[in-house]
Records
---
Amino acid sequence: MVAASSRPIAGARPSECPLCDEWYTQLRTQADKEGIDSRQVIAVSLDDFRRHLGEHLEQIALFTIPPNLDAQSISGFNEHNSHMSGNVVGLP
Ligand SMILES: [Zn+2]
């Protein structure tokens, strides 16, 4: 009667990921390799689902960061460098 409660499959399906199909494919392949019934793996915990979505969001965030930050640190490094070499060259 309460057999369903023994399986902690209250979660999400990898195939529901709106941003890729790879996760689902990957989990199925892995399950096949390990001889696990793939129907068990097709459901993941909500934590796993959130973490997976988080990885997508992280990639998107990194992709959308303007390159200004890099340019600043690089020009700062160059400035520091030229200042140092300028000092050395400027000595009589
Ligand atoms: Zn995904």
---
Amino acid sequence: MDSHYEKNNVAQTEPINRFNLYQYAECSKPDVDRAVFFPNKNTARTDYERRVATAKEICARCIGREVCLEIGIAEKHDGIWGGMTEKERRLYNRSRNSK
Ligand code: SF4
């Protein structure tokens, strides 16, 4: 199978959870710059936005995105988790809890 559901040519053989997330995560691939997932808000706005956009592009093709998002929400981490910034995760979580 040739898809993003493989990491380093290892096919997914189990459900994704918090313990095996990085075995399949797009951001754990060796050619990915992990720094883009933790953009510094004190840098130039354009640099911050470029890093966020790059991280989101990577997250968009990640099979572990939903698990990652829930971890990011539950543990209130900094940076991009599940394709969302901290603020976006807060708003998303608030929105779904109000339904
Ligand atoms: S959703 Fe993004 S930050 Fe989370 S594991 Fe996947 S690539 Fe990494």
---
Amino acid sequence: MSYLLSSQQLKYNVQKMKDKQLLLDRRYLRMAAIWAENSYCHRRKVGALLVKDKAIISDGFNGTPSGFPNICEDNSGSTHPYVLHAEANAITKVARSNNSSEGSTLYVTTSPCMECSKLIIQAGIRRVVFSELYRITDGLDLLHAAGVETLHLPLDGHPELPFISEGSLPFDEEKL
Ligand SMILES: [Zn+2]
């Protein structure tokens, strides 16, 4: 009996792993989108989750630093310069915990800006999965240059959405 996998079996197994990862990516992104609802900012609500070894190790949404009033915009509707982005809140939250962001995946509802991308690189985050592509993409360019893997995964209702029927996946969800 051979223990070697045929190339067909190997291809099937690799595809199964990719499908499984995509399913998890979509679920964590949906959770990040729900987390964005915590934001009291009016212009844009962004949510972020840091996941490592299948555990959520941190979370964040855009808002003012601790101790500041929960108001993101001034009277003219411009965002206060001291508002922290969701990614920055998730990264600084893990910095105060016993966890490490090294090798983790960041799920964020909007693609990261330049400032957050610098933090992402320095925090040792390996992957960034986002649902909405922000019009300014210099942050993504920086992530690419640093070798951080990025994945644009639009959520429901988007025409480019790679459709996955959760009921028909060829693997046992119990083992996720
Ligand atoms: Zn940012």
---
Amino acid sequence: MAVVGPSRGGARGSMSVMQGAGQAVVTGAQSYYHPPPPSQDLQPDRPIGYGAFGVVWAVTDPRDGRRVALKKLPNVFQSLVSSKRVFRELKMLCFFKHENVLSAQDILQPPHLDFFQEIYVITELLQSDLHKIIVSPQHLSSDHIKVFLYQILRGLKYLHSARILHRDIKPGNLLVNSNCVLKICDFGLARVEEPDKTKLMTQEVVTQYYRAPEILMGARHYSAAVDVWSVGCIFGELLGRRILFQAQSPVLQLELITDLLGTPSLEDMRHACEGARTHMLRHRTKPPALSALYTLSSLATHEAVHLLCQMLVFDPDKRITVVDALAHPYLDEGRLRYHSCMCKCCYTTTNAMRQYTVDFEPVTQHTFDDLWEKKLTSIQQVKEEMHKFITEQLNSSRVPLCINPQSAAFKSFAR
Ligand SMILES: [Zn+2]
């Protein structure tokens, strides 16, 4: 299976004319498009990941030969709920501007509204993710852990400043490139914080191993603290190279958590639903066993465990915030390393002096607005709005891209 676009005879028309243009999944959409000369190492288009909320492919951008990730947002117009969820994810991907948060570089040109069924987004391509790294035999030093944790928190600070809760922070959603730059991805479950504490929020969030105790205990309302809990679980997993709380069911998940933290006080369970609280009180009282965290590995130093214990706090109101976690001395070295050679916000001058940015962990200027969601009341309406939104996003200075349905790779993709 050959590659994308940069083949001769390329795009003298729209998609259908692209038959002769090789096996590329993505291709230029306009008649004036002249593909660049073939690059040296042509790599085939291939799937790189499957998640609950889409398939991701590694493809070549035919306009410049760069390797990028192509994500298909699935089941877009199945129901009003799913179409609004996809629209929200799409708007977020276009909103984000932060080094540690994955954002949309491009959206494929949609067909005419009558044929509009699928949405494809192009993002930066990162080779690996934290899950693959943790289960690999690759050595992880304390420097690795610090720089990863720093970047997770740096990205989350930005998201939380936009009032966005990610709600599915897990190692597989933290992409990593070969230089250890990390980006938070997959916003399929993300939503804007609910300021109204009486409003019911769904429990169907966060992969169980990383799910905060208040969600496990049926809290009707929860906050950005659920993401911090997930980061704590990942921090523990980085230190111990195994999942911190790996249980078979939500009830057993809570058991494992209380084995470590001890039985919570009534006060600490005030967000829980009545049934969960009663269940907890029926069991014998467990003492906390936090010193077990020192046995995770030799990398679990006093400083590391000190920070970890503040993330793994039962009561979400007493759990450390992302901003306070970033101020913990454990992360000083991670910050220094990141801004010395990995970031894009600082630079090295011609006389080899490093010019540091004034703001190491920037926040967004504007919060993410979700008022538009409330006005959408039918699938057709979402479809029209989304079509309009995508058309507006298309950068007029670049050739729009579209799917090449003749590509063998795409045919297997579609299957
Ligand atoms: Zn920097």
